[in-house]
Design a protein that fits this description.
Two copies of one chain form a homodimer. The first copy, chain A, has helices at residues 9-16, 20-27, 35-47, 54-61, 80-95, 109-121, 139-146, 170-183, 199-214, 230-241, 255-267, 286-289, 301-316, and strands spanning 69-74, 99-104, 126-129, 151-154, 164-168, 189-193, 224-226, 249-252, 277-282, 295-298, 327-330, 333-335. Chain A is an alpha/beta fold. Chain A has three domains: 4-52, Orthogonal Bundle (434 Repressor (Amino-terminal Domain)), CATH 1.10.260.40; 67-167 and 301-329, Rossmann fold (3-Layer(aba) Sandwich), CATH 3.40.50.2300; 170-300, Response regulator (Rossmann fold), CATH 3.40.50. The termini of chain A are far apart. At the A-B interface, α4, α5, β2, α11 and α12 of A face α4, α5, β2, α11 and α12 of B.
Chain lengths: 341, 341
C-alpha cells in the first residue's frame, strides 16, 4: 500500500501530540509507555485504520525507496490474450519503476480470494485483476477497496464492485464485425457465444443483435448457440449447417470457437469463404495459423494491460484520486483475412 | 534470500562472543559501541559475506514469516511456450506458499542485467531465468551466485555460468522426430533452425544430423537453412523446393517456422503430407490451428516450469545443497498429426 493511502505513525504522533517513537512503542506494547497511553494510541490507530506497514517502515528507516510492487491476478497464464495483457502491464509498470507480483486464479473463486489475501499481506501498492469465470461473490475485492488498496479490473470486470476498469469495446467490436458480414452480403449470421453472466459476453451479443436489427434483420434463436470453445463448435456445427435454412456466416465470441467452426465447415464440404464466412474475436496466434487465415476482431491485449497499469500507478502516485473510478475502453480493430468474402 | 544461505547477525554474535544487539549497532555504526569493536565486527561481517537483509530482519523481528518471493525472468511474456513455463512455475511455487515476481527482458541483455539487480535489491529468495537471445556476458548471473542467490535456468541455459538448469531433451526430441520421418520413407529431409550459438539450437541440430547418419544418410548443406520464423520460412521455401533435388520432408526448430513451410508448400501446389512431410517443435496453440494439423515435438512447458521451481524451492529450503548444480531434463513427446504421412 502506498504511503498516501494510509495514516502513518507520524500522523498519529502529530494528532495525539506525542513523539513518533512513543507511537511506535505503544503499538508494540512496550512497557516503556504507560498502559493508559498505550490504549489511547492503539485505539486511535485502530479507528483510523492504521495498518502497521512493517516493510515500508523498515525500508523508510533504512532510507531505501519503498518497494513499488503491483499484484496481478490472471485467470490463466498459458493463454494468449491474458499473457498479452500481462506483457502490457509489465512494460508500463517497469517503465515507472514498479515490479509485478503475479498469480493465477486458475478460474477458481477460492484461489482468487486466497491470492487477494496474500497480496494484501505482501503490501502490494495495488492490484490489477481479471476475475475467475466462477466468481459471483465480491467480498474479497470489497475488502481490498476498504483497506485502501487500489484495484483495477481488466477484461472480465466485476459488476459487483465499484472499481476502475479497462475493457475493449466489445459491443462496437461485435457490431462492426457483424455489420461487415452484412455488407458483404451475408443474410443468415449465426452467433456462437458464452452465457450472458459475463459483461463481455453480454456486450458482444448486444453488438451482434443490434447490427442485425439496424439492417432490418432479426436474431433467429436457431442460429444463436451457447458455445465458446473449439471442441463444442466442432460438435454442434454439423447440426447447425443441416438446418433447413443454414447460416451463410458465423460470428464467434473468440478465435478458438471460430476455428472449430472453420474446420467443421471444411470437413462438411463447405467452402470458406465462398459458401460460409467466419469472423472470430481475439486475433491471437491461432488466427494466422489456420487456413484460410481468420477474419477477426483484434482485442489489443498489450494496450489493455498498459492502460490498467497506468490507471493504477496514477492512483498510487496521487495523479488520480484514489477513490475515483476510471473506466477506460480500448478500441478494437476488425482484421479482414481469408475467412470472409 | 533464505536464512540458510547467509551468515546472520546471530552467527556473528556467537562467533565473536558478543550480543546480537552489539552486532546490529556496530553494523549501523552506532557510537554506543567502541570504534575498535565496531571495526572488528564490520571486518568479520565483510569477510563472511554478511548481507544486511533488512527485509528479512524486520520480518523476523515482527515474527511474521519471511517473505517467500521467487524472481522469474521471461524473455517475452506474450509467447506460448514461455507463458506455459510461467504457469508451471506459478503452480509449483504457490503450492509451496511462494509468490512470484515476474519481469520480461524483452530479449535484451541490458534489461536482463537491470532485472537481476532489481530482484536482488528486492531480496527475492532465488531467481528462475531464461536468458535473452543476445546475452553473451554472464557477470550479472555470476554476481547473484556469489551473493548466494540460488539461480535456476530454464529453456535457454547459460553455458557461461555453473547453475542449475531445466531443459527438454532437445537432442532426443529432434533425433526421434527425424527418425520417424526416415521410417515413413522420407529420403531428403531439410532442417530449418537457428544459429548454433544457443545450446538448444545445437542440440536439435545434432539430433537431426545423428538420426540421418545412423540411417546411412548424409546431411546436405543445401537442405540446412538458418531460419527460425514463419516469415523467413515463407521467403526461402520456394527456393528450397526448386532445388534440382527438392526435399520430401522438413524438420523445423519450432512450430512457427513449420507453419511457414506448410503454407509455402501448399501455395506452391505441393500436397502435405502426400508430397512433403513437415514436423515442428513446440506443440503450441498454432499446431492444432493449422490445416492439416502439425506433427510436432511437444516441449511440455508446464512441466519445465514445475521442475525449475521445485529445484529452487528445494535449494532455498535446504533439501538440496545450495551450491549443488542440478541438471534436469524433461522428456519431449513426438505428437503425430496430419503433416506427416
Amino acid at each position: 500500500m502506498s504511503d498516501s493511502t494510509n495514516i502513518t505513525m507520524k500522523d498519529i504522533a502529530r494528532d495525539l501530540g506525542v513523539s513518533v517513537a512513543t507511537v511506535s512503542r505503544a503499538l508494540k506494547d512496550s512497557p516503556r509507555i504507560s498502559a493508559e497511553k498505550r490504549e489511547e494510541i492503539k485505539k486511535y490507530a485502530q479507528e483510523h485504520n492504521f495498518y502497521p506497514n512493517i516493510l515500508a517502515e523498515s525500508l523508510r528507516k533504512s532510507k531505501v525507496q519503498p518497494m513499488k510492487i503491483i499484484g496481478v491476478i490472471v485467470p490463466q497464464l498459458a493463454h494468449f490474450y491474458f499473457s498479452s495483457i500481462l506483457s502490457g502491464i509489465e512494460e508500463e509498470a517497469s517503465s515507472h519503476g514498479y515490479r509485478l507480483m503475479v498469480a493465477q486464479s486458475k478460474e477458481n473463486y477460492e484461489n482468487e480470494v486466497k491470492i487477494c489475501r496474500a497480496f494484501s499481506e505482501s503490501k502490494v501498492c495495488g492490484i490489477i485483476v481479471s476475475q475467475a469465470k466462477n466468481t459471483t461473490k465480491y467480498d474479497h475485492f470489497q475488502t481490498l477497496l476498504e483497506k485502501g488498496v487500489p484495484l483495477v479490473f481488466y477484461d472480465r470486470i466485476s459488476t459487483g464492485v465499484n472499481a476502475s476498469r479497462v475493457v475493449v469495446d466489445d459491443y462496437m467490436g461485435a457490431f462492426t464485425a457483424v455489420t461487415h458480414l452484412i455488407n458483404i452480403g451475408c443474410k443468415r449470421i449465426a452467433y456462437y457465444g458464452t452465457s450472458l453472466t459475463m459483461e463481455i459476453a453480454k456486450n458482444r451479443y448486444n453488438g451482434y443483435r443490434d447490427a442485425l436489427l439496424k439492417n432490418g434483420m432479426h436474431p433467429d434463436e436457431q442460429l444463436i448457440r451457447n458455445c465458446d470453445n473449439r471442441a463444442d463448435a466442432e460438435l454442434i456445427t454439423p447440426d447447425v449447417m443441416q438446418l433447413p435454412q443454414p447460416p451463410d456466416a458465423f460470428f464467434a465470441v473468440n478465435d478458438d470457437t471460430a476455428i472449430g467452426i472453420l474446420y467443421s465447415c471444411k470437413r462438411l464440404g463447405f467452402r470458406v469463404p465462398e459458401d460460409v464466412s467466419i469472423c472470430g474475436f481475439t486475433n491471437g496466434q491461432r488466427a494466422i495459423a489456420c487456413d484460410p487465415m481468420l477474419t477477426t476482431v483484434e482485442q489489443r491485449g498489450v494496450r489493455v494491460g498498459e492502460e490498467a497499469a497506468s490507471i493504477l500507478i496514477d492512483q498510487v502516485e496521487g495523479r488520480l484520486p484514489k477513490n475515483r473510478v476510471e473506466r477506460r475502453v480500448v478500441r478494437t480493430r476488425l482484421i479482414l483475412r481469408g475467412t470472409t468474402r
